[in-house]
From TrEMBL, chains A, B:
<feature type="domain" description="DNA polymerase III beta sliding clamp C-terminal">
    <location>
        <begin position="247"/>
        <end position="363"/>
    </location>
</feature>
<dbReference type="InterPro" id="IPR022635">
    <property type="entry name" value="DNA_polIII_beta_C"/>
</dbReference>
<comment type="similarity">
    <text>Belongs to the beta sliding clamp family.</text>
</comment>
<dbReference type="InterPro" id="IPR022634">
    <property type="entry name" value="DNA_polIII_beta_N"/>
</dbReference>
<dbReference type="InterPro" id="IPR001001">
    <property type="entry name" value="DNA_polIII_beta"/>
</dbReference>
<dbReference type="GO" id="GO:0008408">
    <property type="term" value="F:3'-5' exonuclease activity"/>
</dbReference>
<comment type="subunit">
    <text>Forms a ring-shaped head-to-tail homodimer around DNA.</text>
</comment>
<keyword id="KW-0963">Cytoplasm</keyword>
<dbReference type="Pfam" id="PF00712">
    <property type="entry name" value="DNA_pol3_beta"/>
</dbReference>
<keyword id="KW-0235">DNA replication</keyword>
<keyword id="KW-0239">DNA-directed DNA polymerase</keyword>
<protein>
    <recommendedName>
        <fullName>Beta sliding clamp</fullName>
    </recommendedName>
</protein>
<dbReference type="InterPro" id="IPR046938">
    <property type="entry name" value="DNA_clamp_sf"/>
</dbReference>
<dbReference type="Pfam" id="PF02768">
    <property type="entry name" value="DNA_pol3_beta_3"/>
</dbReference>
<dbReference type="GO" id="GO:0006271">
    <property type="term" value="P:DNA strand elongation involved in DNA replication"/>
</dbReference>
<comment type="function">
    <text>Confers DNA tethering and processivity to DNA polymerases and other proteins. Acts as a clamp, forming a ring around DNA (a reaction catalyzed by the clamp-loading complex) which diffuses in an ATP-independent manner freely and bidirectionally along dsDNA. Initially characterized for its ability to contact the catalytic subunit of DNA polymerase III (Pol III), a complex, multichain enzyme responsible for most of the replicative synthesis in bacteria; Pol III exhibits 3'-5' exonuclease proofreading activity.</text>
</comment>
<feature type="domain" description="DNA polymerase III beta sliding clamp N-terminal">
    <location>
        <begin position="1"/>
        <end position="118"/>
    </location>
</feature>
Length: 368, 368
């Protein structure tokens, strides 16, 4: 194989597919990036068997062929080469010569035929969203997946399409995050659970451009994201997702309207008295025009008042401050509305149209 | 005690003195910052018994007094408070109330009288340099101190004043870095060894402003740096510094003139084939108009040629690539000159006036 491409094209492509290279594996071939120049284009692929990414880069194929190169070494070499043309040449023993200007690197490659190709997916049903929207919706929900493997479904996010709405849900047993996105067209009902890892990696690759689109295909066991010159294929998490409808209620006894940034900064300040791993709650006292936030720990105590607009009853309720921070951080509105039932029932942060709903369970602060 | 000052003034002062707070200590009082408002100004002090820093901040003293506050908690509170006026009030039990707008923090302080004050230093002999110069000379030499405590003198830097020259030297047994600074006045001979840690911390505090000056006082066992509203006092390292003159020679058999950036980038690329802890040398072959750099490891091999201007003999010599990179990174000249004797003798990178001299021992690459 002999190919020629610019450093910037190669570096971009390697950066994209590297997201699917596993950090630990017992199969060394999976730690490689496959360069496939057997056909009319140069395709880079990485695949950790759960998540696979391929991308096409511009360049000239002088002699067709393919090679698998250790992803870590290869990407470091590419990154450190001068901003010029890179020539990659392999011999019959998979020895690979990478040259750029006067720099020559020689590394051992692996036969491309050992590489695990991406599974073939029948691409039938698909929806279209902008790169910006997909990147945003992942950011706005990914924080509330569970990091434990004890319940596999909690490590993923529900992607549900109903007519012209895409609903994305994540939950970890203490909170639920829901985002609804209006699609440009109406589609058949689809409901899958996408691994959180896939979504985290894909959001690093997405440009976030509002003008560029992502085609999302739904298959039996896989989801496929196609955008720019890149294809991301991921396994789905099997099983029935949680019935969240029964946990959502529009009843409330107390409704609070508050400046988001003030609330967020206040909780953020309060948490500095809480050491990592300490489950100290923040206690919120809702009065007529003010909300008082208090926290107490071995390090000291803090309290602060914030002006609010309130409807309904006064309330004293405690929360894990991190859960409030996580939700408030991804809401772009200047003012937010919080709905409470009582000190044992979940709090809802949501807008009127319910384009976002964040449900957070309170903590029993007397018991702590 | 009750004092009022702006968040920005307090945050700046706390940031400065925090550099002298030890990360680990058996004496909890040393983990504190002392706020001393007993006299007409507000002075912050931290002291790890080797290094002490005090700085004066602007503010109003409503009621004189002093208090020692845990540096970590106090600085986090200050950092997260709104950009407004901060009021610090203490009671008879050293309970401290920190308020800012509607936020109130209550933390336990310690009696200021338990605090270890900075030692009193007789300030006689001093020199004057700009903040820029001191910050730069530390950056240009600090990388070649030894991090081992087995030879205490190697963990510090020699500061030697002779007439109107300040010479700063660091060495670690494999290399020597020397910088000479021309002073605006002529001074008596002074020769001290300053702990590397002191220099690293002070360089973080220095503004790097070429117009602001630092007064450096030399005392029996201490060195004192005075600048802006800040005083840094450090113990010196005791003992006779190494006689480096006998290691410096102006003889050479090969003299190479080379573009610094090209050389640095080339060595930087080569090191990606060397894993952390692997002492693989870079081998340099000096010919008439080119220098060829080669490196070989289990990961692969790399070679690259760079155009040079050469005087004298051809040479084949090996180096620890990190040592070359460290020295080249802190030289601002576009072109550098390297002087070699033979493959067993040190290489010198220096300018004509010897404002900088970097000596690097070669490695015996046949033996590896």
């Amino acid at each position: 194989m002999k190919i020629i491409c610019t450093k910037s094209n190669l570096a971009k492509g390697v950066g994209i597919v590297s997201k699917a290279v596993p950090s630990k594996t017992t199969m060394p071939i999976l730690e490689c990036i496959l360069i496939d120049a057997t056909a009319s284009m140069i395709k880079l692929t990485a695949n950790d068997m759960e998540l696979g990414i391929e991308t096409i880069i511009e360049g000239d194929i002088v002699q067709p062929g393919m090679i698998a190169l250790d992803a870590k070494i290869f990407s470091e070499i590419v990154r450190k080469l001068p901003d010029s043309e890179i020539v990659i040449t392999t011999d019959d023993n998979d020895q690979t010569l990478i040259t750029c200007e006067k720099a020559k690197f020689q590394i051992a490659g692996k036969s491309g035929s050992d590489f695990a190709y991406l599974p073939y997916i029948e691409k039938n049903e698909s929806i279209l969203v902008s790169q910006y929207t997909l990147k945003e919706v992942i950011r706005q929900t990914i924080f509330s997946i569970a990091d434990t493997e004890s319940n596999k479904l909690m490590t993923g996010e529900l992607f549900e399409v109903e007519d012209h709405i895409l609903k994305v849900v994540s939950l970890d047993g203490h909170r639920i995050s829901i985002r609804k996105i209006e699609l440009k067209a109406s589609y058949d009902h689809k409901k899958v659970v996408v691994p959180g890892k896939t979504l985290m990696e894909i959001s690093k690759i997405l440009s976030g451009d509002a003008e560029s689109e992502v085609q999302i295909y739904f298959a039996e066991n896989h989801i496929v994201f196609e955008f720019d010159q890149t294809v991301v294929v991921s396994r789905l998490i099997e099983g029935e997702y949680f019935r969240i409808e029964q946990m959502l209620s529009s009843d409330y006894e107390t409704k609070v309207h508050i400046n988001k940034k003030e609330l967020l900064n206040c909780i953020d300040r309060a948490t500095l008295l809480v050491k990592e791993g300490d489950k100290r709650p923040i206690i919120i006292q809702i009065g007529d025009d003010t909300m008082e936030l208090k926290i107490q720990s071995q390090l000291g105590s803090m309290d602060e008042e914030i002006f609010i607009t309130k409807e309904g009853k006064d309330l004293l309720i405690g929360f894990n401050p991190k859960f409030l921070i996580d939700a408030l951080r991804v809401i772009d509105d200047e003012e937010v509305t919080l709905y409470f039932m009582n000190s044992k029932a979940p709090c809802f942060i949501k807008d009127e149209k319910e384009t976002y709903v964040y449900l957070i369970l309170p903590v029993n602060f007397n018991a702590i």
